[in-house]
Write a structure and sequence with these properties.
The complex is a heterodimer of chains A (121) and B (219). In chain A, 28% of the residues lie in helices and 21% in strands. Chain A is of the alpha+beta class and 121 residues long. Classes of the chains: A alpha+beta (121), B alpha/beta (219).
Chain lengths: 121, 219
């Protein structure tokens, strides 16, 4: 799971409707997989991202390169750094914990599992 | 012409765990190819989503149309094996896919409200009893058993389409005649003001398969 995908996921346990995003990463195993740099895609993607959630999540896995506030000038250096964090950083194993209800969603072999048991939905 | 994704990395054993691409899959590929110019030049998607990606054949093909790394391709499947195989298929065809194991789009809403530019769904459409749908233990049966009129899962997805589609978004849905496609179009028009057309149709044995395309009035 790449951090861009993590930025799209929220807890969906029945009745858990607030403070349920972003899911907190825990016990994670990380792998960097290089991929082609595409500044146009990154610029488009920025409008779809929850920036504060991304910064918070990155800090949880000791990535400190993201600024707290998105800069006005999106130069190539910034976009390359963002590319590395958002698109090349893969969570291979670990857990995602809801900050509200503490429900834990596993990440196994790079794939987040958002399935709930029938009593939780 | 865009080649069909290479699935040589899959073994017969894999097809006991995930739905093997068949005529319905290929009809959806042909529909996307027919719309390739439109998707590349007019939609210019940022986020695409496929529900029930199975082997990942459809999203890999979409990635080939758009170019790897030009859009985020999210794939969901309720079957964890399918999620793993989807990512593998993308990898073996040099297309980055982002698999999530979930039921339909659970965990993605409201976060992705009105954010999806291309939405694809080849649903479980075969007419069965409700029991076949809900009591089945078979992971493969879940991939095709659709319950009454083959519509039980499709009807769960329809309200979610309106929540997911962006202003410029398009939704491609595979149906068969028994699913009452006209009725589906009416529901989408009356409840959500979504326009539709039959983009492609074909006979596969006795099954009349169609690809419906939906979009917002505003486009």
């Amino acid at each position: 799971m790449r951090l861009v995908t993590h930025n799209m996921l929220q807890c969906h346990v029945k009745g858990c409707n607030s403070n349920n995003f972003p899911l907190q990463l825990s016990d994670v195993e990380i792998e960097i997989q290089e991929t082609d740099f595409n500044p146009k895609f990154l610029r488009n993607m920025l409008s779809k991202l929850e920036w504060n959630a991304l910064v918070k999540t990155a800090l949880e896995i000791n990535i400190t390169t993201l600024p707290n506030v998105l800069p006005n000038d999106l130069d190539e250096e910034f976009l390359k750094m963002l590319h590395r964090v958002l698109l090349e950083t893969h969570i291979k194993q670990g857990q995602m914990i809801c900050p509200n209800c503490n429900h834990t969603y596993p990440i196994k072999d790079g794939i987040p599992n958002m399935l709930l048991s029938e009593t939780e939905t | 012409m865009i080649p069909t994704p290479n699935l040589d990395h899959l073994s017969p054993g894999d097809y006991e765990l995930v739905y093997e691409p068949a005529e319905d899959t290929f009809l959806l590929l042909d529909a996307l190819e027919k719309d390739a110019e439109f998707l590349r030049n007019e939609i210019k998607p940022c986020i695409c989503l496929e529900i029930g990606s199975g082997t990942g054949c459809v999203s890999t093909f979409l990635g080939k149309i758009l170019g790897d790394g030009t859009a985020l391709l999210i794939c969901t499947d309720i079957n964890p094996y399918a999620s793993a195989i989807t990512n593998k298929t993308g990898y073996h065809n040099s297309i980055q896919l982002d698999s999530i194991t979930t039921n339909l789009v659970n965990g993605l809403l409201p976060r992705l409200y009105h954010s999806i530019d291309i939405l694809c769904f080849n649903p479980p459409y075969v007419v069965t009893t409700s029991d076949d749908l809900y009591l089945s233990k078979s992971i493969i049966e879940k991939a095709w058993a659709g319950g009454i009129d083959g519509r039980e899962i499709i009807d769960k997805m329809l309200p979610l389409v309106d929540k997911l589609l962006s202003d410029k978004g398009v939704f491609y849905l595979l149906l068969i005649n028994e699913n009452k496609p006209n009725e589906v179009c009416e529901i989408m028009k009356n409840n959500y003001h979504l326009q539709s057309e039959v983009l492609l149709s074909r006979l596969a044995g006795r099954e009349k398969q169609l690809i419906l395309k939906f979009w917002r009035n505003t486009r």
